Fold this protein.
Amino acid sequence: MGALSNLRVLDLTQVLAGPYCTMLLADLGADVVKIERPGGDMIRSNPPFVDDPEEEAYGGYFQSVNRGKKSIELNFREEEDREDFLSLVEEADIVVENYRSGTMEKYGLGYETLTEYNEDIIYSSIRGFGDPRTGETDRQGQPSFDLIAQALGGVMETTGQPDGPPTKTGPGVGDLFTATLNCIGILAAVNHREQTGEGQYVDTGMYDSMISFTERAIYQQSYTGDAPTRRGNSHPTLFPYNAFETDDGYAVIAAFNNNHWAELCDVMDREDLAEDYPTTPERLEHRDALREEIAEWTRAQTNDELVDKLEGRVPAAPVQTTEEIFDDPHVHTRDMLVPVEQPGADTDVEIAGNPIKMTETNPKPRGRAPLLDEHREEVLGEKADTETADD
């Protein structure tokens, strides 16, 4: 039993943002039915694969964000399939889709139509630029991906080295952060319905989400009138708060308050720096020279030596590779690497676990991602049995 085991979600999403949102709901115990277009989610065939893509049902991309869901294949161009979908809507709690604005209406399956079949349905959309129902703009209807959202929302302009080009973040935050916010919106709507009996439309746009994600840039622009830009790994108002090269890699040090700064200087055997630059404004004013002083010290340490010297006194950590993450006992103790079956391969694979931890209804991946149309009979029941017999 999960915290959301009383909820059924109809998941019309594909690629990343929508599936990640519904994956969170599935980890929390919701019964998530992934309704796939003919041929399935376009990322089923995306690598990586364990061995042979011809034998494996899907790659790591699909597996990682569709675990624990059921799958049925429907073609909304077919009247019978639309009827099947509407029959599921009657008993569902939540519908989630990430089509372009107007797509569901084209099939006669928009929010207003679905409320005729289930008046308290919670209908949620994830789009690049939001839905006209919550604020109409001339961008709606345009396609969007993580790269587009990061570019428009200021993430790329503030990411990267000062002398380098605008840079996207490694993970697709335009998708993942939007998906997480959408999940929060859905859960808020569920709570509202528990109190009032009313369903509603939940809308989260990727561009809007990136404005929220770059919150520091927004208030800096407002307060100073200057457009923030790239600063590498440094922070505009904190120092030292940066990555430093070591003898065998890189490590980060966050010693920006006065106590941590004094501790860092003591470990470095440079009490003179603590005495000469005791306050934040002084350290910020001389940050370039101080950074070189710290960098000269860190280059003489290995990552392990540096962290051992600072542990318990100054916040510091190595910049880890994914290989090092897989070797970290903390990660395994916290169940953040979860083995699941990979259909078509002779070994299990590991995917990222759920970081939400609860004492009574702990979220967890509830099995592998589904095969295409694997759960038709389970989801559609007697109707699916009849169709199979007719075929």
